[in-house]
Amino acid sequence: MPDDPQWPTQDDDIDSDAARSEPTVQVSRPSVDQPTMRFPLAAVLAAPSTQEPLRSSPVRSAPNGSQSGPGAPGGPSTASGGSSGGGAGGKSHGPIGPDVGQPRALPVRVEPKGDQRTTELSVPNAKTARVDQLPNSEASWFDQAVRPEQQGRQAQRPEPTKRVDQLQGQASQRQEPPRQEPQRQEPQRQEPQRQEPQRQESPRQEAPRPEQPRPVPPPRQEPRDLPVTGYDEEPEDRLTTDEPKKSRKPLVVVLSLLVVAALAGATVYAVNEFGGTKAIETRPPAPPAVVQPLVKAATAGGPAPTPAGVQQALAGPSGNGALGTLTGSVIDPASGAALWQRGDTTPATPASSLKILTAAAALLSLEKTDQLSTKVVQGAEPGTVVIVGGGDPTISGAPGRSVYPGAATLDDLAGQVKAKGPVTKVQFDLSRYTGEALGPQWESVDIAGGSVAPIVPFMLDGGRIDQTNVNGARTGSPAQAAADAFAQRVGASAATAGAAPQGAQVLGEIKSAPIEQLVDNMMQISDNVLTEAIAREIAIKTGNEASFAGGVKAVRDVLTKNGFDLTSATFVDGSGLSATNKIPAKLLTDVLTAAAKPTLDDPRTAKLRPLLTALPVAGGSGTLAGRYTGTAAPGKGWVRAKTGTLTGVNALAGVVVDVDGRVLVFSFMSASPRNPETEVRPALDVMAAALRGCGCS
């Protein structure tokens, strides 16, 4: 962008010979603190054109550094001085000449002024200009400097302009003094065009007059100068006085429409240039997946497994001596056919695989959305509160550090109670359960070993000392520990055992995750305490006492009622922790088969379906997360099963998908003195993996 013109001051022209010898063009700047610029009259004279109606042209000065002198395109034959123009005095502002195609200025007004003739011009953006001492016989035009890239084109299309002598004739008829406020006239005012020969006058031939210093009046004290009203107004015609000022709204509307049209054109261009309509096509979101709670063949129409095929697949793995005494069965749940059997009706110690029976009884008898509730009620004395254990062993004593997803928190319960008023004494009521807190044949060393805790209706984190350690040590007094933690939170002294008054006001309540989620959690991490709590809830629901014996009776009753044969099964707890528990492998496969049927024509199947998703995944989750390596690796991700481990006892029962896409149900129970970590369990894993790899048709 060219530099802004440098405007000379009055002092610059006082000593200039060129300024005294030639008439000048004086331009009034809009700011009161800017000086007046004059141009030599010879630099702006030229012949008028008669091809179009008379118009005035804007006055501009080219910036410093523009072409000047005789060789400058579109410029006059002589420059106004300065080093580049060859004249004396003044600052060089470049040539002034026609600028074809540039915005047209508004008409000018010329008025006599003694021995001087002043021509006032309207310029773009409401600027005014004054030409002093113009002769009556001379014509001139004023225009912008031509940019280099436009000179060629503009030279071919000169724009006609008004002649000064014509405008002087119009101005002489006006006698009134110029108004301070500029007025407008119709821009398309027509006047007859005079066909006159072009005059080739350069400098005027007049008698020389004595050179006298010409006084320079203060540029902003001329009463006849028209004020510049600013750069933001629309250009106005200053030759008329009867038309009201135009509104700027039409221009704003036009400019807005042009901007909108430009944006629309750019959008169309971008769409066509970068891929057309397909480039901006928005596809609708995919419909949600339809989830059906069915176990289906992975391959439609896959060959049905045969007993011969399964027996051949298991011949080698089942003969591993590390398994000791092995019992088990394999069933096709689609047809109910038995594919492999070995002592499947002989009762054996199931260990934790017995949890399959407790989970099945819970899903068949309890509502999946049921929750276990723990409450705090008002005690018999003022300031006393009583915690009423509701059978939820999953309450979290340290939020964010629980092994039970969705567990309620002790902090929540304490916060509710504190909001009701001050507490001075805390009691806990464990009357929901009856009988012994430890099951038959349970050993107290299992508490410190992390397998179990006393079964009471109020505890934190299943009685764990370290809330995040699934197999970590547990406390022998889980209820007292939980009540003391609550008392500390509400600002009371140590808690004591007590009974809740009948119909006491409830001060706070928290609820566990739903039963279905509790069943899933107990199967994944094989949690003995949670299993026993669920067994007691089954007992309460079926009208039995909430004890080990009541829980066992309730589980048996529910399963028998749903068509499962338990005649040869004997067990004394719901978790399988007792070594005296004995059940046949067939009972486990019967329950799993009912859950894995491909259709829902069996009313038990819909209720038992969550049992399959609760099973740990081989090499992926729960108690099978670290298993299925080495030769058992082909079963990783394809086997889902419940584990069982006691001293000398290991079990594995679940489902697997074979290479033909058929779902198979299996249960294996081993009684062996061999190393369970390095021999027995890996051998059971290989058997299940063999079912995955067989083409058992």
UniProtKB/TrEMBL annotation:
The record's keywords, sorted A to Z, are: Hydrolase
Q: Where is the composition biased (Low complexity)?
A: 61-81
Q: Enumerate the SUPFAM superfamilies for this protein.
A: beta-lactamase/transpeptidase-like
Query: Where are stretches of biased composition, namely Basic and acidic residues?
Result: 176-212
Where composition is biased (Polar residues), the residues are: 23-34
Q: Where is this region: Disordered?
A: 1-244
Q: For bias kind Gly residues, which ranges apply?
A: 82-92
The protein's superkingdom reads Bacteria
The record's InterPro entries line, in alphabetical order, gives: Beta-lactam/transpept-like, Peptidase_S13
The Swiss-Prot or TrEMBL record describes its family as follows: Belongs to the peptidase S13 family.
Under what name is this protein listed? D-alanyl-D-alanine carboxypeptidase / D-alanyl-D-alanine-endopeptidase (Penicillin-binding protein 4)
Origin organism is Lentzea cavernae
